[in-house]
Amino acid sequence: MNIVAAAPEDFPAAFSFIQALWDYNTYDPEKTQAVYRRVLEHPDSFFCFLKEGEEYLGFCHGDFFDTFWMEGLTCYLSSLYVRPECRRRGCGRLLLDHARALARARGCKALVLDSGLPRREAHRFYQGYGMEKSCYGFELIGL
Description:
Shape: globular
Distance between the termini: 41 Å
Strand order of the largest sheet: 1-2-3-4-5
Strand content: 25-35%
Largest sheet: 5 strands, mixed
């Protein structure tokens, strides 16, 4: 298994993972691809895949930004997904380790993420990794 930076031609794999991660939402492929391209081009973002040979096992996407809370850079991991049949093989840990290494290299003081309330299995995984529950997330959609 290796982690590779995402490329524009990887969009079909990214799109299938995005649809699976947020399966309660519907996605327009063109709009999602436009976001994907912006993420790949942005110097404060990263998007990578975990692959085994030519097979895509999972992905993660994050952003680096300054926060007053940490008085410096924070890495926000906005997406982490491993195909269900690939779970419990260390795939999620490899992706988190990679995101953590990128955050350290950028001088971040924290790696943060949020996870939907129903994702109890994911919560156990994050806590097993050493992360702590730290807040409730709120959103205002439809601005």
